[in-house]
Each structure stands twice: as C-alpha cells, then as structure tokens.
Amino acid sequence: MQVTPDLLREIEQFLYREARLLDNRQFHRWAELLAEDLRYWMPMRSNRYPANSKAIASLDEAHQETHDLTEAHELAVMDETRESLIRRIERLDSGFAWAEDPPSRTRHFISNVELEPTENPAEIRAYSNFILYRTRGEREEDFYVGSREDILRRTGETWQITYRKIVLDQSVLSAKNVSNFF
Amino acid sequence: MVAEMQGLVNSERGLVSRRIFIEPDIYQQELERIFARCWLFLCHQSQIPNPGDYFTTYMGEDPVLVMRDSGGSVNAFLNVCRHRGNRLCRAESGNAATITCAYHGWTFGNTGKLVAVPNLQDAYFGELDLDQWNLIPVAQLDDYKGMIFATFDPDAPPLREYLGEMAWYLDSFFDRREGGVEVVGGVHKWVVPCNWKLPAENFGGDAYHVSWSHLSAIRAGFAGDFRLRNTGGSLVSPGQGHCVITLGGGDIAEAPEPELVAYEQDTRPEVVARLGPRAEQVSPIVGTVFPNLSIIRSTSHSFRVWHPKGPGEIEIWAWIFVDKAAPPQVKEALRVNGLRGFGPSGTFEQDDMDNWQECTHTSRGVVSRRYDLNMQMGLGHEEYRPDLGGLASDYRLSESNHRQFYRRWADLMAAEQWQDLPA
Known about the structure:
B: Naphthalene 1,2-dioxygenase Alpha Subunit, Chain A, domain 1
C-alpha cells in the first residue's frame, strides 16, 4: 500500500476516532475495530547499561543485557488477543470491576503519526506517540506516555487493528494499575 | 526512638490499631526491627545463572546488589559506593566482572572487593587501605529451592529455621516436579500508594475478599468460579508470621485453560508423591513468607515482593514462575494467563489497589485512627493441626492468618533481639 498524504490523513482520523471511543468509554464499539487475529502487546522497559558503558566491565559479554525491552516470550504489562480484550470489556460491564468503579476519566493524545508500507498490500504500518492522561476519584492523576506501532488492515470502508505494540517509557510504572486501553 | 508497641495489636481479640499503617515512627521501627532483621527475598537463581550475573533490588529501603562472582558463588551487598554513598549499580540486571561508581570512579569486583580507586598514588599518597572499603555484605545469604534470601542480622536464625514448617508450603509452590521452577524473563514493577502490610496480609490469609473483590474477573472467565468449590481447605499459619491459604487437596485453581487444567491433573500423582500425604489434604494456593514475599499459584503463578517505600507507599516487584519440567506450551499459557490475571493490568490484581490505597489513606484521619480494625472472623475456631504443621482455621474462610501475621509483627517490633522473641 502506497503512503500518500490522503492515506496519512485517513489513518490519523481513524486513530483519533478510536481514541474518542476509548475516552467516551464506548468499549464495545472500540472492539469492533480489533481484527480477529489481533496481537495487542505492551512489553516492559528496564534500566540497562548500554554496550559502550564504562560503568561496567562484563565478565561474559554473551550474558550482558543491553536490550531494555522485554521480548515476546517474556513478561509484559499486557499481552492480549481480541478475545481477551473483549473479556476485559465484559469485566467492566459486570458491575464488580472496582478499579473502574467509579470509572476513570481518560484523555488520549495521539501524535507523531508516521506510515510505512508493509509486505501485505491490504495493510499499513502506523507509528504514533501517545499520552494517556487518567484522573480518577478525587485527585488521582496518572500519565501513561509512550509509543505505539500498529499494523492496520483495510476492511471495506474502514480499518481494523491487527497488531499493536505499546511501549511505555517508564520502567517502574508510577500508576497503581493499568485499567484502561491504549 | 522506639515506638511503644503496647496495644497496637491484640491478636487474642482480633483487633489491630490503624496507627501501624500510617505513623512515620512506627514505619522507621519496622525498617529497623523487621526489614533489617528478617530474611528477605532477593531473587531467583534462574535470574542469575552465569558467573558475573547480577540483579539489583532492595531490602527494606536499602538498595542491594546480588551478584554471582566469577567462581559461581552468590553474594549480596549494599548497592552503595563506600566512598560517598552513591548508588553503585544503576542497571536492573546484567553481567559484570567489575562495576564502577559513576561519581568518582571507584571500582568494585563481583566479589564486592574494592579493586581500583582513581588517583590512589598521587592524591591518596598510596595510603588508602582498599581492603577496608569493600562493599558491605549482607550478614547471611541462603537459598531455599532456588529462592535466594538474605538478612542483615548476623543473629537471625538460619534460613531453614526461619522458614520452619513454611518450608513444606514453599515446596508446594516451588518443588512440585524435578528441577523445581524457573522464572519468566522480566519483573513487573509498579508503585501503589498503600502500606506494605495490607498486601502481605491479603495474600497471607484473605480468602474472604476473593469472591467479592474479584468477582468481575471470575464472571468474565479469567478464573474458575471459586464459590462453587467447597471441598475443604483452610487458612494455615505454619508459625513465625508465615501464612498460607489452602484449598482442599486435589482442588485445582488454575485459569480455565484446558492445557493448564490438564497439566495439573496429569502431574498430580507425581506432585503428591513428591510432597507427601499433606498434599492429599490441602492445596496451597496463596501465601506470604513473613514479612513481604507473597506467592500465588491460582489463576496466575506469581511471586512478588512488597517493597516498603515509606508508610504509605510500596513498589510491587512481581515475577511469573513455571515448573522447569513443564512443556513449552504450558509455560507459554502460564506466562499469558499469569500476566492477564496478576500484574499492573491484571484482571484480578488491579481491583486490589484501590482497596489497599483507601485503607491506607483513611488512616490519616485522627478520628478514623481511633477505631481498631476488625480481624475477628473465625476467632476461636482454629486449632493446631500437627498434620498440617501449623495453626489451621476450621473453615476455608477465616482471619486466623491475619491474627498470626500481626502477632508476629508486634513481637518483632517489641523484641530488642532475636532471643527475646516468643516462639
């Protein structure tokens, strides 16, 4: 799929609309944007010395850990399918989901949208940055800041998310929980 | 200053003062008398398998560096440069022959030895005795079934004695099959504005909250329905403040994934043969090793440390563990279901945070603080059970473990030395 200014505009509008559905808590409508084969993944960051660091002299270079993001087979904050996300939404519907009762008030800010063609002509890769602001209760405030890498699939007039990798910038999360969607 | 402990905990009546969740003096005394004395969990052997591997953590509020030296021995030190007290190692894990302080460049070997000081000859005139300025080691370090613990107190009893009857319960989590367990790579770390004792007591004995606090996750299919099961089980206090929640022997509390349920069923004969007849009576599913290591193997298989960060804040550091001998698809199912249930986004765990936060914050009110908390469920309906190796409640819901947890807490806070502690 060729990247054009029109396509960029269309994808930006899609991402903004998606953010509005989340902030309006229209989660079932949001779920309609998720592809059947979705992988929705939020790996974890950690503090590592880079390979050129003079703070450390490795005993065994092979076991020096320089990658600051967990890998696919390791721990993640979220590692979801469409089905598990829908179960999370059904949990919110139950009337017993105390982390969201009373609900969070959220605001998603999406920026730095860039498109990149993929090998699949029906799909496009979209990079974006986000701030998810959450306030809850009397004076709780959390900022979840990071980047996303999406693969979006053209389905008729609209798009579906088939892959979303969410990378938060924090290593130790300062929020007491992650009960919203990104 | 030593805070007066009289009247803060009345385990005979099941009453606990709210002052212990909020008062700075009491918190400082906890750091001294609990966190600088008890055996605390550092990390799992599978995190640092190779010579030079290290992991940085905390014992109480003291930063600690756990390192496997070039010879393969595990040591732990204050992660603090002896020169000016800078935090020495800034990475969470890695591999090191030496680590150099970012401030003036003092360099320590992976045995904790100070090996290089810039300007040693010209500025120190060669007069600094390096051997006097090695990293400060913990007083004792030991391992139980792959779990590495340490204490800052040379007078603390050996780890095996400190665990006592809890050792069998740890076996039921970590030694079910040949090879024990290993951890999935990475550690969940997040901040919760609550006192550290609230999650420790919750995992230690709060079977009561599960079917209300976590009903949404149960209804949405993230767990089997606990309420349908009533085949026994009880709250067990194996002594010294350690606490375990058990189901009836043979009860399975896995996430409702066919391969996980099948794995539990298929391995059960091996597990019972390994753990012995007690495993026929009870299935331990959640517990706390006093003071701040908790373990769960229902819906998620996770252990976690509640690191104190002041009276009103903790960091949760949580791991997911799997039987080393489990097939790859079971390990993957445990990874995925584990993080979906417990962890920052956990469909179970996220609902706990609000409760612990508000229980902590309401303690700020001077009038609220006058009213004791109620831990009276099942008071008098508990007995010492030799077959279970501990005090056990007569029913599967009780606050008997809470009472034992806080009794131990009060004993440690009052005792000036280990010898003064009641059994």
